[in-house]
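Hi there,

I know you've been waiting on this one. I reran it after we fixed the sequence typo, so this is the corrected version. Both the input and the resulting structure follow.
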Amino acid sequence: MSEKKLRVAILGCTGSIGKQALDVCRQHPKRVEVVALSAHSSTTALVEAAREFGVRHVGVADEEHAHDSVLDELPSGCELHIGERACADLGGLEEVDCVVLAVVGFAGIDAALVSVRAGKTVAYANKESIVCGGELLMPMLRPGQLVPVDSEHSAIFQCLVGERHPEVSRLWLTCSGGPFYGWSKERLLEVTASDALAHPTWSMGTKITIDCATLMNKGLEVLEAHHLFDVDIDDIRVLVHRQSRIHSMVEFVDGSVKAQLGPSDMRIAIQYGMSYPQRWSAPCERVDWCLEPSLTFGEADENTFGCLRLAREAGKTGGTLPCAMNAANEVANAAFRRNACGFVDIERIVARVMEQTAVERVDSLQQLRDCDAQARELARKALVEVLE
């Protein structure tokens, strides 16, 4: 009797994580059936993937692309979903077993909540919605329902398999340090977007690559780890590891440390998000550890790269402050990418929005939507002010 295929929906299939998820599916056609795909606006790439995998459902979030002529080339019988709810609709489909949530930013929170409520296994790469809505999302989960796809959180997840939570002492969240590791604040004043997009070890989308350069990405990951693994923020250490071979570590009360090592290839974590609790054959070239250079470690500079410090502060305060912090960062990050502000202005804008935010206890998704919208407006005003 043949093994039943895992029926997968990939939300955000045209981004970096989504493309690599498709590659995992491509390498395991006997194990995986892709039944649904979504994109924000990249309809040409969406249609190409839909035709390759013969999917039954596609979603386009940006309504301005609802009538793109290329959509006429979708496979016969493929249902088209349009609008802000498109991703969420696909995540709740009855014929889906596993949702790969690769949507970038706060926009992924609807799909996360719908997928979880529908009982799907979620291979999770949308850290922003856990940062913003973790207090809503985490109590809804059954054990093993959410498998993180970020390399660091996948590593911690794997290290914790078979372990007891009371015996965890702290988490070591590894960090490449980005392209400006060791730089001074003064030197960062001259950084351009093209400089910041030159990540030393990983190939990612533009938003997350800038977040890695500011260390905001690591700040978001600290908050994500806090929610995912129920560990105090003060017990999550950021460890600069330039070679990106150790993807994170767990330290236990007896002083023992478990680490997950491997290639700098996101497909391993993505694949484990689909295959858990099983392991499938490697989707990429293995590491020959006899040929590897020395592994080095350092401490993250939270004074120079203040976004990491701000994220920790938001997480310790809790409530709606992480949501406001995330929204401000999304606005500032986008402004920097279009050369509308400087690199260090990202931190300034986030700090100003956090100072102006009235923090409330999280009690609903609508409250988070309102907080997100208000923080974005504050960030746009702060953007004008810092440039005056």
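Quick highlight: Residues 127 and 221 are 7 Å apart (CA to CA).

Best,
R. S.
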